[in-house]
Amino acid sequence: MAVEIHPTSIIHPGVELGDGCRVGAFCELGVPSPLAENDRLIIGRGAHIRSHSVFYTGSKIGDGLRTGHRVTVRENMIAGDQFQIGTLSDIQGHCSVGDHVRFHSNVHIGQGAKIGNFVFIFPYVVLTNDPTPPSEDLQGVTLEDYSIVATMSVVLPGVRVGSGALVGAMSLVKGDVPPDSIYVGNPGKVVGSTAKIKLKNGEPAYPWRRHFHRGYPDDIVRMWKAEFA
Amino acid sequence: MAVEIHPTSIIHPGVELGDGCRVGAFCELGVPSPLAENDRLIIGRGAHIRSHSVFYTGSKIGDGLRTGHRVTVRENMIAGDQFQIGTLSDIQGHCSVGDHVRFHSNVHIGQGAKIGNFVFIFPYVVLTNDPTPPSEDLQGVTLEDYSIVATMSVVLPGVRVGSGALVGAMSLVKGDVPPDSIYVGNPGKVVGSTAKIKLKNGEPAYPWRRHFHRGYPDDIVRMWKAEFA
Amino acid sequence: MAVEIHPTSIIHPGVELGDGCRVGAFCELGVPSPLAENDRLIIGRGAHIRSHSVFYTGSKIGDGLRTGHRVTVRENMIAGDQFQIGTLSDIQGHCSVGDHVRFHSNVHIGQGAKIGNFVFIFPYVVLTNDPTPPSEDLQGVTLEDYSIVATMSVVLPGVRVGSGALVGAMSLVKGDVPPDSIYVGNPGKVVGSTAKIKLKNGEPAYPWRRHFHRGYPDDIVRMWKAEFA
């Protein structure tokens, strides 16, 4: 399948785009940088990169990437398959991202972040890394599989958000969040288990893979349905 | 009056621009989408769309639109006259906006929002819609006429902000806000009536239409002056 | 040294770029405006302006400017040397900025701000100016030399943040912050002196110029080293 690149976009040397990739208007891919670990940008099959986006060299991204508009990805990000990056998101690079991760609009990922699989990050979330700004003491944030960080939350340096945990909107996450727990507030704290949250229909809202299947591959949805049958 | 489109900008089929519209550089208007209810983008007379902005199909906007730079408007927004959208604002579509609404920079409008007339939204405000993220239980936010949401506030799903109410900076709006009341904090609460807030000159600051008239049409300003004479 | 301008970028009349300036793709410099105090944009030597950035007329900036992508600078900003403006930052103009100031990504500077020398501002910080929005009672924020405002904080109108003070992440700054003090919370308050914060190695973290020297000129670093020897 052919690669489709809008004629206004700039593709630097060293960029590899898999079969069926589409690149919108006014993008710049493969920006060279002395901070990049290598002079290549590797993007898997079927990517859809929307207009005004900028990717530096040194990153490697799996199949099925989908971005909004005006996304920035700096040097040295390693990301898995089916990664979604919302409009205006700003990934500072030097980070790792698992499979099936979804960032909504305007997410800011500080260097050193380690993001698992099936993680959700909502608008205006910041993953920080400097406990004593400005300093050279960088400590990235870890988000484990299936965790969710809701809008306008800040995760402080070195914090680990456990598997399936939910950080509520506008929370300042100062300490580790245990798996499957709810963390809210500024300053934030654990306020219970995600098990107590219900959907409108009365069914449990978490783990969200019980009910939320939009856009995931059939084999994964089948597995999730079997898990909660 | 002629329409003026910068030669670098991309105008897809189905875009209708009223008399006297101006479109800045590096814009893309009428992006086709399977999510759009129709394949048109209709923008009234005298619009000024600044550089790097992106509008999808399915939206209809009245006269006098004015945008900052790098604005995004997704599918199926119905908006009134004299709409101002600040730089970097991100409207997710599937929403309605009244007349004379003003968004400052970097406002994020989730799907399902219902925004009245003469509403003000300040930078980094998020109108959410998903009470149990991620889920399909979407509940849009309602902002009634003359209401104001100050900078860095988050309005939670399904909340109604009453007519003339003021949400203070960095507030997490968890419940409905009565008309003409002040709501602040995280978690937020009603802390009084807007009637107690004064301008520097000692006059009442609210309803703001008593004193703030910059950029409104003469007939409206005359009406407001008569109302508070 | 030659000036290098990407062929896709738009340079309006009245723009002066010093020796060795580089301008990335899809930028627009010197946007004319009736709000500008003059019809010029003056940028000193060695600037590096990254892609998709927009600068209006009426501003004057010293040597060594460095910007991220998609930066906006409106009318009438006076800025010193070695100014760094992160990706997506939005400077509303009518403000002053000292030497060696660093804005990280997505900083919003309201009109009337007075920013000293060696100031750090982190992502999603808003400097406001309107105590009774919307109104014409504008009161800019003052940030004194060496002060630091951490991510997602809002500084309310007319507030002065003292020299060397640290505003913690997600703080709502309602009153003046004394020099070398720590201010945190929503609503925020002073919680102590920066002297009590240590680096990982046990050394004092503040004043940060004791230990953080990345990117500053040799003569300044030598002076700082002598100060704390």
Q: Can you say what the CATH homologous superfamily of the largest domain in chain A is?
A: Hexapeptide repeat proteins
Approximately what portion of the residues of chain A adopt beta-strand conformation? Answer: 25-35%
Largest interface: A-B, 37 and 30 residues
Biggest sheet architecture of chain A? 9 strands, parallel
Order of helices and strands of chain A: EEEEEEEEEEEEEEEEEEEEEEEEEEEEH
Shape of chain A: globular
Cα-atom Rg of chain A, whole angstroms? 18 Å
Counting DSSP E segments of at least 2 residues, the number of strands of chain A comes to 28
Task: Itemize the secondary structure elements and their pairings.
The structure is a homotrimer of 229-residue chains.
Chain A: E1 4-5, E2 10-11, E3 15-17, E4 22-23, E5 28-31, E6 41-43, E7 48-49, E8 54-56, E9 60-61, E10 66-67, E11 72-73, E12 77-79, E13 84-85, E14 90-91, E15 95-97, E16 102-103, E17 108-109, E18 114-115, E19 120-121, E20 126-127, E21 142-143, E22 148-149, E23 154-155, E24 160-161, E25 166-167, E26 172-173, E27 181-185, E28 188-193, H1 218-227
Parallel strand pairs in A: 1-4, 2-5, 3-6, 4-7, 5-8, 6-9, 8-11, 9-12, 10-13, 11-14, 12-15, 13-16, 14-17, 15-18, 16-19, 17-20, 18-21, 19-22, 20-23, 21-24, 22-25, 23-26, 25-27
Antiparallel strand pairs in A: 27-28
